[in-house]
Amino acid sequence: MIEATPGSGGSSGSEPMDEPAAGKAEETNQQNIEEQKSNSNDQQGSNSSGSQSNQQNSQSSEPNPENKEQKSQCNTQSNSENKQTEKKKKKKTKKDIKKKEVQNQSEDHKVIFIVIIFVLFFVIATIILVLRRKYLLKQREKLLSQENINKKYIAYYDYLNELKQYNSEIENNYRYIVLKAAYSNTVILQEGLDEIRNYVEECLTLIQENNSSLKLLIYQYIYVLF
């Protein structure tokens, strides 16, 4: 007969008790493995997403040659436009300056032309007045230096009436004698002629003393009194 020892009996009795613990350990090991797998997958996904984002960032950060060309073209166009605008502005400023210069020159020419015309008019007027005065003085001298004493007396009388128009102090006291000289056959004496000549000279001195220099110029060159 074989006797049952306590160790053998204990071992045989404990085997059914250890089976569930082993199953639990296996389950926990499988769970840990699955967790590790999921963590590794998550890490891989995050790494992949990070690498993708880094790639995108690197791609975005890397300059595209097309963008460079477009930027360079835009810059060249803008530079050319700026140059053209500057050229246009310079041309406009030059044109404006030229226009102003032309306008100023035209105004200066107008002023010079007006001044020249005024000077020419003044010179021509003075020449005409001087020539006219000389002509009238010669004509008067011819009348006052006639040989016929009666005609000479009439010429002095006319000259006296001409002076009387510009000086009211002159009196016409020789009307009777001049009528006699004009309409009768009597000859005027030399004394009567000298008398009227002296009176004319006195009237001329009165006119020169009682008038201003401007009036005297008018009397000399416009009315030609003396």
Q: What can you tell me about this protein's structure?
A:
With 226 residues, this protein is mainly α. The chain is built from 6 helices and no strands. The chain is rod-shaped and about 185 Å long. It starts with 5 loop residues before the first helix and ends in a 5-residue tail after the last helix.
Anisotropy-based shape: rod-shaped
Residue share in β-strands: under 5%
End-to-end gap: 200 Å
Characterize the biggest β-sheet.
none
Mean pLDDT value: 75
Number of strands: 0
Order of helices and strands: HHHHHH
Percent helix, as a range, is over 70%
Radius of gyration: 69 Å
| Unreliably modeled segments | 1-22, 46-51, 56-63
Question: Helical element count?
Answer: 6
Structural class: mainly alpha
Labels describing this entry:
single chain, about 230 residues, mainly alpha, 6 helices
